[in-house]
């Protein structure tokens, strides 16, 4: 399997969960991968080890995507290690589910700074490394963009903003051979999924009951779609919002 042979990818927020799975799948398809992390160094290094133990190429680079200096360093280290960039996956993100009565300015800024500003900063820097053949940007959005949930007003707004960025830039990049798409996961079983108490909850049972395929998603369900979008097999897909939700709609 080598759909991404000789390609270089940066995956933000790749130390665990969906991001880690994406990094591994891109490497499996032949890409050299930069595993970005904010604080989970040990987890990021474990992702790198899995990749290199399977004859892949990867490095871990710390960086808070909401900070311009960190983003510049992330792409500088990418250039130093691999010389170029072909694929950017904006996966880094946070969510804070809370009622409007408990909403705070800090919560707003934390979510928008990472989910929205962080993506804009990484896209800005990626353009400096994309070569003559262009580039490929994949934003990890959420089903909450199209179907906002109770207690998730700010989070849903960040993902709607990220999708707007995707559509806007797909037009702005006309003639530059740069594609950009959004992937909208539904409920996905990750470490955070368990941390917030979703696993085994009434909310999980309800959402699965509304999912025609009858289960929550797995990180690899998302990673496989990202790997497809990162490859030339998806060359005619641009500026799209692609739902990966097992058929979950309209909750």
CATH architecture descriptor text? 3-Layer(aba) Sandwich
Terminus-to-terminus distance: 38 Å
Determine and state the CATH class. Alpha Beta
What form results from the Cα inertia axes? globular
Instruction: State mean pLDDT (0 to 100 scale).
Output: 93
Please count the helical segments.
8
Class derived from helix and strand content: alpha/beta
Pfam families: adh_short_C2
Protein name: Short-chain dehydrogenase
Keywords: Oxidoreductase
Family: Belongs to the short-chain dehydrogenases/reductases (SDR) family.
Strand and helix map with partners:
Layout: E1 8-11, H1 17-28, E2 32-37, H2 41-53, E3 58-62, H3 68-82, E4 87-90, H4 105-126, E5 135-140, H5 153-172, E6 178-185, H6 191-195, H7 202-209, H8 219-230, E7 241-244
Parallel strand pairs: 1-2, 1-4, 2-3, 4-5, 5-6, 6-7
Helix pairs in contact: 1-2, 1-8, 3-4, 4-5
Protein name: Short-chain dehydrogenase
InterPro entries: NAD(P)-bd_dom_sf (IPR036291), Sc_DH/Rdtase_CS (IPR020904), SDR_fam (IPR002347)
Keywords: Oxidoreductase
Any overview of this molecule?
This protein has 251 residues and is an alpha/beta fold. The protein has one domain: 3-Layer(aba) Sandwich (Rossmann fold). The chain has eight helices and seven strands, in the order βαβαβαβαβαβαααβ. The protein has helices at 17-28, 41-53, 68-82, 105-126, 153-172, 191-195, 202-209, 219-230; strands at 8-11, 32-37, 58-62, 87-90, 135-140, 178-185, 241-244. The chain is globular and about 50 Å long. The mean pLDDT is 93. InterPro entries: NAD(P)-bd_dom_sf, Sc_DH/Rdtase_CS, SDR_fam.
